[in-house]
Structure formats: structure tokens, C-alpha cells
Amino acid sequence: MDGISVSLLESNDEPAWDAFIQEAPSATFFHRVGWKRVIEKAFGHRTFYLAARRRGAICGVLPLTRVKSLFFGHSLISNAFCVRGGPVAEYPEIRDELESEAIRLTRELGAECLEFRSEACSGSGWQIRDGVYANFSRKIAPDSGTNLKSIPRKQRAMIRKGIANGLKAEIEEDVRRFHHVYAQSVRNLGTPVFSRRYFQLLKEEFGRDCDIITILSGAEPVASVLNFYFRDQVLPYYGGGTAQARTLAGNDFMYWEVMRRASERGYGVFDFGRSKIGTGAYDFKRNWGFESSPFAYTYYSLGTRSVGSVNPLNPKYQAAISLWQRLPLPVTKLIGPAIVRSIG
Q1: Is this structure's pTM higher than 0.90?
Q2: Integer Cα distance of 153 and 173 in angstroms
Q3: Is 50 in contact with 8 (CB distance < 8 Å)?
Q4: CA distances from 307 to 119, 129, 150, 277, 279 (A)
């Protein structure tokens, strides 16, 4: 296709980028230009947001983040710290131009791997890694009664148990209670936690398209989730619960509150996100009646490192995970952010 140019996004074109994302069918919340600012401020990584133009108008985009680590290698990722990414374009020819420029940039930067968190790249040299993740998403009705009936009986019972236990939900602007609960949850899973500042930046950047719902037992927070909103979708993205949440059915009650409130606001799709196949999160979402769909990532390797090798299910990470689970919570809050910024 003639007349296509690809270049780095300039600040005065950021509104045009987001306007394109809002209308492009294959675009996601994770293609929004606000991620560029959040990633740069929270992690200090360089970003390369490629915009394709035709006759001066944006016709394709590709957000890229450079993640360089001694332990995890040197990659360009679309998009780092997000579950979705990859090029979005009006036509296949425009996508090809974005891919070619991304490969050229990967070589220029000396990176080992180009990673798209999406499928179906064209041309030779691309590898698809599937069979690791599944995605869960379904439509929700405009009324709570219909939505509750659509949840399988055992999970409905858990929601009612949470209600009977007197759990309450609050919308929060401050991230402190959320971060404390989330830090406990991921520590118990053996995963490094993000910094509190990262979550504050997400709240500030995305405004009303990002909220926090915290579940309280009396005055004690037992579960909390940070949600994104995009078009007609609600995406509960970072969530967790304390040990007490399991006893009180806090996690089921929390996701019910997300669904109920999103339905009241007019959202029609509950995107439960990706989970690794064979994990507790995968089973939890299936138990809620969500059907899984295949979810693959695409890689272009320029080095010797095996693509997609950073996987906590890999046996070589099990000793580190076990150690992390035994660390005091304040220690994990202190050193976790330095680790997680290198993973992307």
C-alpha cells in the first residue's frame, strides 16, 4: 500500500492515537497511550510507540517497551506489564509495515527478542507460543438478577455466603489498602509485588476508567481489586485477598460486586482476563461459568534465549517461589518492585 509512513509517536499526536484505538476493532485497553507515561514513570523503561500514517492520519499503532535485565534478557515487548498488545492496523499491509519497523528497531537496539502479546504475525521468523494461557470473557446482562442466575450454583452460594457474613464493598481513590491486600496475596503465591506508586500512577492516568473496589469485613479490608474500563468492557486486572477472605468468601463476593456495579453502569462485557492453564486462577474462572478461549503470544527471536522462558510454572523457578512465600511481607514490599520491573 502506497503512502504509508511509520515513525515514533510525538506528544502532539497522542490524542489522535487514542482516538484511533477507541474505534479500531482489534484494539484493547492496553494499547492506550497512557501506558507509555505509566511505564516510563513507574519503571524507567524506554518506550517506542510506533504510529503508521497515511495521508497524515494515523492508520495503525504498535506500542513497544524495552525491558533489559541481567536475568531475564533484553526484549522489546508489546506491551510490557499488560496481557494484550501487538500491532493494530486498518489493513494487513499497514500491519506488515509496523512489524517490519519493530524488527528493525529490535536489531538496532541489540535486543534478543521481539514479543507481541497477540497472535498471527505474518512472514517468516515468527514463533507462536500457545497452550500456556487461556482467556475468559463473557457478556453480562443489564440487571443483577439475570447475572446472578448465570453464575453456577456453587459460586452463587459463595456469593450469598459473603453477603451473609456481612461483607461490604467500597470504591476507593487511595491505593494504600488495595496495595496492602494485593501484596499479601501475591506474596502467598510466590510472586513479586508492584510498587504502590505504580498503582497510584494507573489511577491518576486513567481516571474514571480505572477504579478500586475493596471488600470489608467490619473495618478490615479482606479483598481488593483494581479494574479497568474500556468501551463496553470491565476488566478486573489486579486483585487479591487475605487468608481471611477465603473463610468469608471474600473473593467471590468481590468479583460479584465488580460485575454488579459494571452492569449498573451500562457495561456489557466482563473480561476476566488471562490465566495460566492448570492453575488455581484458571479453575476459579471456570467455576464461575466462564468458557476459556485460546490465548497465544508471538515472538521474533534474534538471540539464543528461548522465547517465553519467564514462566513461574517452570520447575527452575520453584525454589525461588518457595523462598519468596516465606519472606516477611514488609521485605517483599521493599524488594519486589525492583524484581518485577525486570520481568515486564
Answers
A1: yes
A2: 33
A3: yes
A4: 15, 8, 39, 18, 21
Residue from 118, 110, 15, 17 nearest 58 by CA: 17
pLDDT digits (tens, 9 = 90+) for 199-226: 999 999 999 999 999 999 999 999 999 9
Neighbours of 119 (CB within 10 A): 15
- Calpha distance 332→187 (Å, rounded): 7
Per-residue confidence at 312, pLDDT binned at 50, 70, 90? low
Convert the chain into a string of H (helix), E (strand) and C (coil): CCCEEEEECCHHHHHHHHHHHHHCCCCCHHHCCHHHHHHHHHHCCCEEEEEEEECCEEEEEEEEEEEEECCCEEEEEECCCCCCCCCEECCHHHHHHHHHHHHHHHHHHCCCEEEECCCCCCCCCEEEEEEEEEEEEEECCCCHHHHHHCCCHHHHHHHHHHHHCCCEEEEECCCHHHHHHHHHHHHHHCCCCCCHHHHHHHHHHHHHHEEEEEEEECCEEEEEEEEEEECCEEEEEEEEECHHHHHHCHHHHHHHHHHHHHHHCCCCEEEEEEEECCCHHHHHHHHCCCCEEEEEEEEEECCCCCCCCCCCCCHHHHHHHHHHHHCCHHHHHHHHHHHHCCCC
Q: Which of 35, 31, 32, 57 is CA-nearest to residue 45? A: 35
Q: How far apart are CA 313 and CA 125, in angstroms?
A: 26
Q: Say if residues 199 and 42 touch (Cβ distance below 8 Å).
A: no
Candidates 169, 150, 155, 192; CA nearest to 310 is 192
Report the distance separating Cα 239 and Cα 182, nearest Å: 6
Rounded Cα–Cα distance for residues 295 and 131 (Å) = 8
CA distance linking residue 290 with residue 288, whole number of Å: 6
Within 10 Å of residue 306's Cβ, how many Cβ atoms? Answer: 12
